[in-house]
Design goal:
The protein is built from 16 helices and 19 strands. It is an alpha/beta fold. The radius of gyration is 23 Å and the shape is globular. The chain starts with 7 loop residues before the first helix and ends with a helix.
């Protein structure tokens, strides 16, 4: 049933939920091993204790791949370090390259493909909408955004900061959602004092690559090439209550954090730290923004990661899994913040379009079920336990950490996670890396325990192989 009609009554219903505003790279370490893995043709590689069957050697990809990549490079900006393979279709938790080799996907497009590839729920939602209308801009109403906004708002249960409800602003990506959150926090701060304009974030955070989100991402690798950054940003150590007490002062309008730092080594926050930051924000009348771009919509085993910490933020942001592969971002505001935002304060051309929000509603409804979320928690614990047991005794594994199906394997500096990822890939498993020298595992939420077992076996064997080579 349509959520939009030409009646004023229905428009008022819609306004309850919507805001009223129009790389993977290699380290120089392990280069010898990486070059050996990438450049030699073989069926097995061996160390003193491990023999690995190489089933997906990069050098054995489809004929013409290198020629196509060379041709593509004439037109594409070379921003990404990628292996010399091309993927062209997927099914469930698997993707296939142009040589029709099958890879178990524990990357999920960096936590985007939460329901896997070619999922009929997503495919059917796209088909349903794409033949009707895709985009009309926010100069006009369309049928779908209020339905998704309602699903999000009702999932909050009128608790804590959302006791009076919430509003949703739709954009197109995680960085856009965070940019909006930063702007809304600044707008709120201006209603209190012209000097209340500082945004505080935490060391090892990642909030995006646009200039505002980048200014909240204290990592020189990302920031240095684009200085000077925006003024009014400062940083504090993660999980450090005393530093937070000092740094969250009366001039701070917003504090942005991740409950599990996705780029920062899959490091979960301590519960007492998150609860203190919430308390301190209330004391100085600052907005608490929780970046749920990677953790939200079920990735950690709860619908939102902040639910593990018994707090509610004033704003939180969603993106990656929300559209199941269709670009979408969402900024969710408490009524306290939403009422300070006026028409014209913010806007977007593509955000909230008919296609993205229709697909988003299908994805959200599928994941937001108690039994589905319970399975994620169970499978996440199974994955974590399996990795701990399989890597027991490995000197280069420092820690296995994370929540739900968002798991990191922290490695000793002697071996890079990129080296492990390369060995895994050439056995038909896709994993990715992140900061703090950590291997990052983000399988589709529909992954089975048998598929987890296979991934654990490949990862542990790859780690042991590289450890032998040191």
């Amino acid at each position: 049933m349509s959520f939009l009609t030409q009646t004023l009554t229905k428009s008022n219903q819609i306004s309850q939920y919507l805001i009223p505003v129009s790389s993977r790279t290699h380290s120089s370490l392990n280069k010898f091993f990486l070059n050996k893995i990438q450049n030699l043709k073989y069926s097995t590689i061996s160390s003193k204790n491990v023999t690995i069957e190489v089933t997906h050697a990069d050098s054995e990809t489809a004929k013409g791949t290198i020629e196509k990549l060379n041709e593509d490079s004439k037109y594409l900006l070379p921003l990404y370090g990628r292996p010399n393979i091309i993927f062209n279709h997927g099914e469930g938790v698997y993707v296939y390259d142009t040589a029709n080799r099958k890879y178990l996907d524990f990357a999920s497009g960096i936590a985007v493909n939460s329901l896997g590839h070619n999922n009929p729920i997503i495919v059917n939602a796209i088909k349903e909408q794409i033949t009707k209308i895709i985009h009309v801009s926010n100069l006009y109403h369309n049928e779908n955004p209020a339905r998704l906004a309602k699903l999000i708002v009702e999932s909050l249960g009128k608790k804590g900061k959302f006791a009076d409800g919430a509003k949703v602003f739709f954009g197109n990506s995680g960085t856009e959602a965070n940019e909006a959150a930063i702007k809304f926090a600044r707008r709120y701060g201006k209603t209190i004092s012209q000097n209340k304009n500082v945004i505080l974030s935490f060391n090892h955070a990642f909030h995006g690559r646009s200039l505002g989100a980048l200014s909240a991402t204290p990592n020189q690798k990302y920031q240095k090439p684009f200085t000077p950054l925006l003024p009014g940003f400062k940083y504090s150590p993660y999980n450090d209550i005393e530093a937070a007490k000092k740094n969250i002062d009366e001039n701070v309008c917003g504090v942005i954090l991740e409950c599990v730092q996705g780029e920062g080594g899959l490091t979960p926050a301590n519960k007492d730290f998150i609860q203190y930051v919430r308390k301190r924000c209330d004391e100085v009348n600052a907005i608490l923004i929780v970046d749920e771009i990677q953790t939200g919509v079920g990735r950690t085993g709860k619908l939102y990661a902040h639910q593990y910490y018994d707090i509610t933020p004033d704003i939180f942001t969603l993106a990656k899994p929300l559209g199941g592969g269709i670009p979408i971002g969402a900024t969710v505001l408490s009524e306290k913040v939403a009422k300070t935002i006026k028409p014209g304060d913010h806007g977007t051309t593509f955000g909230g379009n008919s296609l993205a929000t229709h697909v988003g509603a299908a994805v959200f409804s599928t994941i937001n079920r108690p039994e589905f979320l319970a399975e994620i928690r169970e499978k996440g614990a199974y994955l974590k336990k399996g990795l701990i047991e399989a890597t027991k005794g490995c000197k280069i594994v420092k820690e296995v950490r994370g929540l739900g199906l968002m798991i990191g394997v922290a490695l000793d500096e002697k071996v890079t996670p990129a080296a492990v990822a390369d060995v895994c890939r050439q056995q038909g498993l896709l994993v990715i890396t992140c900061g703090m020298n950590t291997l990052r595992l983000l399988p589709p939420l529909i992954v089975t325990k048998d598929e987890i077992d296979r991934a654990v076996s490949i990862i542990s064997k790859s780690i042991k192989y590289l450890e032998d080579k040191l």
